[in-house]
């Protein structure tokens, strides 16, 4: 079983490293501090490398494992497995982000969200902006977005029957 999914494991690691590098980029650009007001909008650009890595992973599976001929179903299964692996790794990725890369993010976003009136109290903001919530969101987000990306990508990558 492991040999059948080596490609998915490899690309899940690539995806996780890219995620950590993205968090470093956000921190260095001030999106977790000075320019935190823009974080809500600019963090969505993360979708570009995330989708790109998914496409590369599924192309790699098609070419290396299926010798260039892959059905929609085979690709979708590969994408679901990739999504599941990423989801399993995401709590660790979130922990590294929250406690190693940018431990100031939660205090900064909590303070600013109360100042802007998104939350009435600090306690309300703390209930939303914390490692546990983000770890859970990361798991479900990885599964949902990965499966959606796989569903769409395989429309283009599947081998057409003659």
Task: Briefly say what this structure is.
With 162 residues, the chain is an all-alpha fold. Helices cover 77% and strands 0% of the residues.
Key terms for this structure?
mainly alpha, 77% helix, 0% strand, 7 helices
Described by the principal axes of the CA atoms, the overall outline is elongated
| Strand and helix order | HHHHHHH
Characterize the main sheet.
Answer: none
Straight-line distance between termini: 31 Å
User: How many distinct folded domains?
Assistant: 1
Could you give the count of β-strands? Answer: 0
Radius of gyration: 18 Å
Outline the low-pLDDT stretches: none
How many H/I helical runs?
A: 7
The pLDDT mean sits at: 96
How would you classify the helix and strand content by structural class?
A: mainly alpha
- Beta content comes to under 5%
Assembly state: single chain
Roughly what percent helix? over 70%
Description:
Helix 1 (about 5-30) packs parallel to helix 4 (about 70-100). The protein is mainly α and about 160 residues long. The chain has one domain. The chain is elongated and about 60 Å long. It starts with 5 loop residues before the first helix and ends in a 5-residue tail after the last helix. The model has no long low-confidence stretch (mean pLDDT about 95). It has helices at about 5-30, 35-40, 45-65, 70-100, 105-115, 120-130, 130-155.
List the helices and strands and how they pair.
Layout (H helix, E strand, L loop, with lengths): L5 H23 L7 H7 L4 H19 L6 H30 L3 H11 L6 H7 L2 H27 L5
Helix pairs in contact: 1-3, 1-4, 3-4, 3-7, 4-7
